[in-house]
Amino acid sequence: MNAVAGHRQVLDVAVAVLQRADGRVLLAQRPAGKPWEGYWEFPGGKIEPGEAVEQALARELHEELGVDPDRVYPWVTQEYAYPEKRVRLHFYRVRAWHGQLHGREGQDMSWENPAAVNIGPLLPANDKVLRALCLPSIYAITDARKYGEAEFMQRLKTALEKGVRLIQVREHDMSPEQLESFARRVVELAHEHDARVLVNGDEALARRCGADGVHLPSEKLMRMKQRPGSRMWAASCHDAAELAQAAAMEADFVVLSPVLPTPTHPDAAGMGWEKYAALVKNYPVPVYALGGMKPELLDTAMRHGAHGISLLSGIW
Fold first, then answer.
1. Per-residue pLDDT tens for 102-160?
2. 2 confidence band (pLDDT: 50, 70, 90)
3. Which among 48, 143, 196, 292 would be 20 to 30 A from 186, CA to CA?
4. Residue 105 and residue 128: Cα distance in Å, rounded?
5. Model's pTM, two decimal places?
6. Within a 10 A sphere around the Cβ of 97, how many other Cβ atoms?
7. Which pairs count as long-range contacts for 208-211, CB under 8 Å and 24+ apart, including other chains?
């Protein structure tokens, strides 16, 4: 807690995103007499000197809500400057806990859909977090080259019916005309299932086919001077420099790869989970793990700081 920003010490805070199986998250109202009283926030509190984030999180949950966490995943870390102080918020997702949940400080609580919060006012630092919580845990990449377009569209329909809600159109072998036609079909089918689509590398194409945004490869990311005009954008990253650029440009999310060996690159070892965790530690943007991923690795990825996993061959 010795970092200084604008000559002000940064206060480190552990923040718990308690999330039920239906996706709703717990928000609590700040009690009377505290700064920003009446505002709604995620539960949490100051990290004491020498205290690990996970320890602070468990202590705050017990003191504020009377529960103890069972399944805790490191997630994003964001800084925010309030008029009176600057805080570094270490968000952890808590998917399981035990104890009788209740406001031990007399605070009101509410389970809210991150996409449509019905209470307020919210602490201003929570806007980005709520948007990030709307991202699904699976980010699927199209693979029409492997299956052929007709067969792939059938597999896409099946995946959407099973719950896939975020898709990247990435088909490097298609002609521009074929790619645009294919992207339009993917977007139309995805939107019928309330899923979002990003088009790889081409913001103009994304707009023409009605996609929700663009996904930039790392070489385009590193040449960026300003963020794209798309309402949603992501980027591919492979190292700390690319991650830093994506954060500086305020990407909605990034994909970090390769984590494990893949069928297409069996000789490439991948960075492994330890290096992945080190790269994404205290990162402000949600990160998907890519490379050798399978649905059954989702929990492993989340334990190492991932928002979710990105799949090519493992999803269709």
1. 988 888 999 999 999 999 999 988 889 999 999 999 999 999 999 999 999 999 999 99
2. very low
3. 292
4. 27
5. 0.94
6. 19
7. 208/180, 209/180, 209/183, 209/184, 210/184, 211/169, 211/183, 211/187
Give me the residue label for tokens 């890519």.
Answer: 290
